[in-house]
Specification:
Elements (H helix, E strand, L loop, with lengths): L3 E4 L2 E4 L2 E2 H8 L3 E5 H14 L5 E6 L6 H9 L3 E4 L2 H9 L7 E3 L6 H10 L3 E4 L2 H14 L3 E8 L21 E2 H13 L3 E7 L10 H19 L6 E3 L16 H12 L5 E4 L3 H4 L3 E11 L5 E5 L8 H5 L5 E3 L8 E6 L8 E8 L6 E4 L20 E6 L2 E6 L4 H4 L8
Parallel strand pairs: 4-20, 5-6, 5-13, 6-7, 7-8, 8-9, 9-10, 9-11, 11-12, 12-13, 15-17
Antiparallel strand pairs: 1-2, 2-3, 4-14, 14-15, 14-19, 16-19, 17-18, 20-21
Bound molecules: ligand LLP.
Length: about 425
């Protein structure tokens, strides 16, 4: 469902006009919809009825406490990749037994924190990490539940920066080494083998690579059983894409059904780690046109959001739809939508056909995932506010930073 619709021409989040949001919270401002978050999670949960399954939301996509809270209340677990994310999900009230910990570089301190918290599973990504985790768990007198993140070497056919399942990627353990490494894990005293994990990439639009990866993982599950290693769970990672422009996006059903078909007769708990699909289309970035600068070659609309807020266009060349909150009737022109940051790479959209005037509000759509979390303070720009709309109410989920907060941790020389 789309939670962002027009009422009398004006773009709303649920029942709240974005004109009112801008008046109350100023711009730039991230706007999330509770109903859209819940609907996205429900789409997964509905497919999983009858399965022993847990949807572990990939916190990296959007880690605002209010977002975590909404998803936790609806039954989500969490996939974290740092001690910082662990503290966040605990602050949002997450159940430790619904947390899995991914990532190639877990420090000893992060392992200690996760072990004392009592999380569900560590997704171990290398032989060296396995040894360290065993040592850290031993020093605490604890046993660490583990799965190995196995790299199935399938082509996710997505952007190279966000493809993770190929041999050349830094993620996971090589498929050919996995069996021996499970043997090693079984021999270590402070580890308890719980499952197997794989994640092949992000923004996948074709369900086929997921099935291809699962076939390889299940073959390994069977080999391990002959070695006497019987797994309790299988974690299929995240990666299902969303529509940014005109992509043909598989439904959650089309993505999950073929996978669940292969899993239905196996006594394995099913874990999933969706990020973008749960939050991407549930958020937008609200911005105001500061100046229009028409030119001979290009027309620039300089807005108050920038690459420090939404880095994806500059970083990946990704496309986000940009629409007027209150559309004008005048004839349109092609505008470069750019921010105030001193870089030519600071753009949010190229050649967008819009009728614009200074002061107009624009919404940059599908910005709920990898938006605020990837923002920075470049050019000493305070990070934008985040609000979450719930019906006809708006909650401030993170207040705007102030300029003096940006240097509060710094000191001049004595
Ligand atoms: N699990 C693991 C182990 C991951 O590395 C990721 C994402 C996910 C789950 C969630 O993937 P999703 O369902 O969101 O596709 N910043 C990039 C995306 C980076 C994704 C990193 N890993 C972007 O803006 O497109």
């Amino acid at each position: 469902m789309s939670a962002f619709t027009r009422i009398s021409g004006v773009l709303h989040a649920e029942s709240v006009s974005l004109v009112d949001v801008a008046a109350q919270f100023d711009t730039p401002c991230w706007v999330y919809s509770r109903v859209a978050l819940e609907a996205a999670l429900d789409e997964f949960q509905d497919q999983l009825i009858g399965f022993d399954a847990l949807v572990c939301y990939a916190v990296k996509a959007n880690s605002n406490l209010a977002v975590l809270d909404v998803l936790a209340r609806r039954g989500a677990g969490f996939d974290i990749v740092s001690g910082g994310e662990l503290r966040r999900v605990l602050a949002a009230g997450a159940d430790p037994r619904r947390i899995v910990f991914s990532g190639v570089g877990k420090t000893a301190a992060e392992m200690e924190l996760a072990l004392t918290t009592g999380i569900l599973c560590f997704n171990v990504e290398s032989a060296a990490e396995l040894e360290r985790l065993n040592a850290v768990a031993g020093s605490l007198g604890k046993t660490a539940p583990i799965s190995l993140r196995v790299n199935p070497d399938v082509d996710a056919r997505t952007h190279p920066y966000i493809s993770t399942g190929l041999k050349e990627n830094k993620f996971g353990v090589a498929y050919e080494h996995a069996r021996a490494l499970y043997g090693r894990a079984a021999s270590l005293p402070n580890l308890e083998i719980s499952g197997i994990d794989c994640h092949i990439g992000s923004q996948l639009l074709d369900p086929a690579p997921f099935a291809e990866a699962l076939d390889k993982i299940l073959a390994l599950v069977d080999q391990l059983a002959t070695d006497g290693i019987v797994l309790r769970h299988i974690d299929l990672g995240g990666g299902l894409g969303i529509r940014y422009r005109d992509e043909e996006v598989p439904t959650v059903k089309a993505y999950l059904q073929p996978l669940l078909e292969k899993l239905k007769d196996r006594p394995l708990q099913v874990l999933l780690e969706p990020g973008r699909r749960l939050v991407g289309n549930a958020g937008l970035l609200l911005t105001r046109v500061e100046y229009l600068k028409p030119g001979e070659v290009r027309n620039f609309a300089i807005v108050d959001a920038a690459m420090n807020d939404l880095a994806r266009p500059a970083l990946y060349g990704s496309w986000h739809d940009i629409v007027a909150v209150v559309p004008r009737q005048e004839t349109t022109a092609a505008w470069e939508i750019v921010g105030p940051v001193c870089e030519s790479g600071d753009f949010l959209g190229h050649g967008r056909e819009l009728a614009l005037a200074a002061g107009d509000l624009l919404a940059i759509l599908s910005a709920g995932a990898y938006g605020m979390v990837m923002s920075s303070n470049y050019n000493s720009r305070p990070r934008a506010a985040e609000v979450i709309v719930d019906g006809d109410r708006v909650h401030l989920a993170r207040r705007r930073e102030t300029a003096d907060e940006l240097y509060a941790l710094e000191r001049c020389l004595p």
